[in-house]
Amino acid sequence: MINDVEMLNSILQSAEMGCQGITSVRKRLKDSKVDDVLCNQLVRYGKIYHCANNMLRNRGEEIQHVSPITKTMTRYAASRDLKRDSSSSHVAEMMIKGNTMGLNKMSRNLREYNGADSNIRLLAQKMLDTEETHISEMKAFL
User: Fold this and answer.
1) CA within 20 to 30 Å of 142's CA: 13, 87, 112, 115, which one?
2) What is the value of pTM for the model shown?
């Protein structure tokens, strides 16, 4: 079972990875339409990140960020993939894969969440909805 703090850290890390993935891809992006969508997605992730961050701080809990190694691996993988193909459709495919991983992880965590805090449950659901929205937005570029 997952408690309140673990759930908040999971939400924070998912949003952090979303920001990391978008930032890594935007550096090599050539299509301004895709970039506009990704900028909006970055803002959404940022809001969720800050909300989870504030909830953890208000509880006096330690914030567990994504490891620097994971962030570096994400940057490297994005750079490698985009050297091969930096088309809008490939970028969309990469982002959909990341969103799907986030969606799956958050779905599992929500099922295992044993807390009764409705605000945490709502934030987790918002993260799920955000991932689904991002997938739908990226499908337009496939």
Assistant:
1) 13
2) 0.94
